[in-house]
């Protein structure tokens, strides 16, 4: 029962936060500094999600040059810095990850 209450409460929190910014009936204005900071939220969340997968693939720190997760992440970062289309970054980095996993 407590889990369901937590899920419902978090759903309400998520909905209310998004509703405040999307509803036209609530006059909220965000200043330029806040808008600038919000641009960093997506990369921050993506980093928080990927770091444990890349460096702790089996629950323990595995930061060696033979870790295919690290090699795939390096390829993905390098490709994304070249401003390549996202789908190509995904395909090439996944292929390099699979190749590294197969070869190592």
Automatic annotation (TrEMBL):
Membrane recorded as keyword: yes
Keywords of the record: Membrane, Transmembrane, Transmembrane helix
Pfam families referenced in this protein's UniProt entry, alphabetically: AzlD (PF05437)
Domain of life: Bacteria
Sequence intervals crossing the membrane: 6-25, 37-57, 69-100
InterPro entries assigned: Brnchd-chn_aa_trnsp_AzlD (IPR008407)
Name of the protein: AzlD domain-containing protein
């Amino acid at each position: 029962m407590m889990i369901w209450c937590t899920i419902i409460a978090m759903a309400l929190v998520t909905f209310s936060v998004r509703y405040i910014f999307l509803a036209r009936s609530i006059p909220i204005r965000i200043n330029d500094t806040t808008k600038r900071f919000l641009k960093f939220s997506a990369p921050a969340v993506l980093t928080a999600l990927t770091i444990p997968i890349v460096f702790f693939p089996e629950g323990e720190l595995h930061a060696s040059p033979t870790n295919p997760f690290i090699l795939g992440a390096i390829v993905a970062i390098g490709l994304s810095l070249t401003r390549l289309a996202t789908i190509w970054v995904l395909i090439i980095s996944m292929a390099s990850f699979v190749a590294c996993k197969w070869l190592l």
